[in-house]
C-alpha cells in the first residue's frame, strides 16, 4: 500500500516535469498598436533582414517590427482556425504557399499599395495574387572540400549519382516537399533542364532508386544538411546553395556548385485575418526596393527579387548569388504550375508526390 | 489507517481542478484529433483505409516499436544495477549518484542529441580514439543508424527507468533478504526469488514510462537515425507540418494511441502493474 503510493508519487513527479515543459514558452509575438509581426526563417537571415529592412522601416514609419519564426503553414492554419491570428506578414517558399493557398490562409496582395517603380523590376513570375517575390534561393550540389577537392568536385547531378567517381555519403531532404528530388533525379538520368516539366514521375523514381544506396541521411532541416557536410558525415548534399555559401564564408570546408541547380523565389505574403494589412503592405513595398535588396544580399548570399538590385552590387558580391547572370544561366527555374496541379484524387501533385516519397523512403 | 478508497463524495471537489485541467489540455484536443481523422468534412474512414492499404505506414509502426522495445530493454539492463547501487550506498554517495542521474535529465534533449553527434560522428572523439589506437582504419558508422538512435534514446530516457526502480527498491525491507539468507538461500537465489519479484512494480513502472516515451520520440531518431530509422512520429510531423494533411496525421496518431493502449493493457496484466497504478487502470 505504502509502496504503491510511493511509486505513484515518483511517476507523478517525473512525468509532471516532462509534461509541463511545453507550457513554459515565451509569450508568442503579437502585434500591438503600431506594431507589425513579420515571420521569416530566423537565425542569421532575420538578423540581415533587421539591418536591411526592419530598422529603416521602423524609422520611416514609426511602426515597430516584431519578428517570429518559423513560418510553417501548420502554425498559421492553427491560428486562422482558432481565430487568434498573431502574425501579419510571412516570408516563405512557393511550395508552402501552394499548401497555404489551398487552405485559404493568405490575404490577396493589393498591388496598388506597392511601390510601382520597384514592382516593374521584380521577377514577373514572382508577382502572384497572394504573394510577391522577396528573394531568390537555389538548391545546389553542396560538397565537403576535404572529401572532394574543388576542381575535382561533382559538377552535375549525374556526378552526385556516381558513387564510383565520387566517394562519400549523400544527403537529401526528408520533408520540405519532394522538390527538388524528382527534378534532379530526372536531370541525373539525362533529361535536359528545359524539358523537365511535366515531370515523368515513374522515371524519376527509377533514377532515385539508383541514388538510394549512397544516401546516408535524409536530413530534416537545411541547417542540418550544412552541418552534415561540414562535419564530413555526408560528402555531398542537395540543399540550399546560399546557406552553403554562408557556411563557406564562415570558414567551413564547404563549397557550392551552381550548375544544374534549382532556382526559386521566396515570397512575402499577408496572412489571413491580419489586423495590420495596411502596415503589412507598407512593409512589403519598403522591402521590394532595389537598393535595400542589394544591402540585404551583401549581408546574406541570397539573390534579390528585384532585378535592378544587382546593379548596386560589386561583381565580386554578385558572383556568389544564385541569381547572378552567370549562375542563373547554369540553373533552371522551379515550375510551381505543375506542382500545384490538382489531380482526380483532389490532391496537388506536391501533396501526392511528397506522401509517395515519404512512403518510398520508409520501405526502401 | 483509514480504509483505502480512491474516490468519495467529499474528495470530489479536490480532484476537480485536475479533472478540468486534464479535460482542457488533453481530452479536448484529443477529441479534435478524433474529429479530424474521421470528418473531412463529411464522415469518412478514407484516412484509415489509406493508412492500412500502404505497407510503408505499417513498416514505420514496426520501426517505431522495434526501437522502443529495444530501448526499453537496454535502459532496464543499464538502469537496474544503478538503482540497486543507490539503495546500498551512503546517503552522501547516493546524493551524488542522484545528481548524475538528474542533471542530464534536466538538460535539453536537443543539446544532448547534438553532443552525441559530436562524440560519435565520423570525425568524432570516439572514431578519432579508435583510429589513434589502431583499431580501425576507416571511421565506424556510429550515428545515422540503429545503434546511434539507441544510444541517444537510452541516454535520454535512463532517468525514467532509474527513478521508479529506486523508489521501489528502497522500500524493500532488508529483513526479508536477511531472512532468506538465514534460511539457506544463496545470494543468487535471494535475488531471483525475493528481491527481483519485490522490485517488479518498479520494473513495470519504469518500463512503461520509457516505452511510452520512446514511442513518441521525435528529435533523437530524426537527428541520430539513418535512412532506415524513419519512425511514425516523423511521418506525423510531415503530415501535420509540411502537408497540412491534419486528417491523415490525426489518423496516424490515433492508430498509434490505440496500439499503445492495447500494448499497455497486455503489459500491465502480464506484470501485474495494477498494483503499481493503484488498481485505477
Explain briefly what this protein structure is:
The complex is a heterodimer of chains A (364) and B (281). Chain A is α/β, with parallel strands linked by helices and 364 residues long. In chain A, 43% of the residues lie in helices and 18% in strands.
Look at the structure and give the mean pLDDT of chain A.
90
Coarse morphology of chain B: globular
By DSSP, the count of extended strands of chain B is: 0
Output the helix-strand order of chain A.
Answer: HEHEHEHHEEHEHHEHEHEHHEHHEHH
Share of helix among residues of chain A?
A: 40-55%
Query: First CA to last CA of chain A: what distance?
Result: 51 Å
What's the story with the biggest beta sheet of chain A? 11 strands, mixed
| Shape verdict of chain A | globular
Rg of chain B over CA atoms, rounded to whole Å, is 23 Å
How would you classify the quaternary structure? heterodimer
* Major sheet details of chain B: none
Helix content range of the residues of chain B, please? over 70%
Structural class of chain B: mainly alpha
- The ordered H/E elements of chain B are HHHHHHHHHHHH
β content of chain A, as a range?
A: 15-25%
For the terminal residues of chain B, how far apart are their CA atoms?
24 Å
Taking pLDDT < 50 over at least 5 consecutive residues as the criterion, the unreliable ranges of chain B are none
Task: Tag the structure with descriptive keywords.
heterodimer, A: 364 residues, alpha/beta, 11-stranded mixed beta sheet, 18% strand, B: 281 residues, mainly alpha, 74% helix
Structure description:
- The complex is a heterodimer of chains A (364) and B (281).
- With 364 residues, chain A is an alpha/beta fold.
- Chain A is 43% helix and 18% strand.
- Chain A has 16 helices and 11 strands.
- In chain A, strands 1, 2, 3, 4, 5, 6, 7, 8, 9, 10 and 11 form an 11-stranded mixed β-sheet that branches.
- In chain A, α7 packs across α8 (201-211).
- Chain A is globular.
- The N and C termini of chain A lie far apart (51 Å).
- Chain B contains 12 helices and no strands.
- Chain B has helices at 12-38, 46-53, 55-88, 91-105, 109-120, 125-132, 146-169, 174-182, 187-215, 219-224, 232-242, 246-271.
- Chain B is globular, with a radius of gyration of 23 Å.
- The mean pLDDT of chain B is 89.
- Classes of the chains: A alpha/beta (364), B mainly alpha (281).
- The interface between A and B is large, with 47 and 50 residues.
